[in-house]
Amino acid sequence: xxxxxxxxxxxxxxxxYLQSFLYEPKEPSETVATALRRLNEQAxxxxxxxxxxxxxxxENSCLQKKCGACAMVINGRPMLACDASLSxxxxxxxxxxxxxxxxxxxxxxxxxxxxxxLKDLNAWLTADADPSEKKNPDAYxxxxxxxxxxxLEICPNFAVDGRFYGMASMVPxxxxxxxxxxxxxxxxxxxxxxxVFEGCGKSLxxxxxxxxxxxxxxxxxxxxxxxxxxxxxxKKRN
Length: 238
Ligand code: SF4
Ligand code: SF4
Ligand code: FES
Hints:
CATH class of the largest domain: Mainly Alpha
CATH superfamily of the largest domain: Alpha-helical ferredoxin
CATH topology of the largest domain: Fumarate Reductase Iron-sulfur Protein, Chain B, domain 2
Radius of gyration: 20 Å
Largest sheet: 5 strands, mixed
Number of helices: 8
Bound molecules: iron/sulfur cluster, FE2/S2 (inorganic) cluster
Number of domains: 2
Structural class: alpha+beta
Number of strands: 7
């Protein structure tokens, strides 16, 4: 039997409280996502003390580490619930919502700022994308970003209302920056410099936490070159 402690909150106005559940995995390979689904499937969910409990609010979609929806803080570390094997976690397993984003309820947070930041950066395609791994390895690597927000949770420089947009914005911007001709990327390069390049401390704590295993260091080096260093040279010559 595993004890799962969930930091709960009915909505962002209500105070948070910890509620414990006892859960018996049916298979050794079960994940936190499986446990949450099975707890919520119970006709009448009860906590460790036997009190009736409301279903636990959390987000999920693919359950295959592809959508990023189930990101949460598990035993103090931002992870995907569908990638967190119960057998690898110390019990009690503590589940908390990502702390950098406003809480909607329980483990569900509002990550709409990620998309707002991409809009601010002007990071969108105006032509067909070609993210084939062989022809455009950086675009392919960047296209694996789940927009889960785990990198922002760990980043000391990111705040929802801050000027620094973090790796969740750097990666999609890199996908465009490394492919655009110099004269076409003026706007994106300027926003990238302001919201990514100038705020990053380059500790690369985010690299270790990314559940997609994206080469953040390599992408950042090449997009910094494309948005800042090569543009300085290009401006000098033109
Ligand atoms: S390198 Fe450091 S400051 Fe830059 S995004 Fe990663 S964690 Fe944040
Ligand atoms: S870079 Fe990695 S951790 Fe950050 S949002 Fe993309 S997939 Fe998630
Ligand atoms: S549910 Fe899609 S990544 Fe976990």
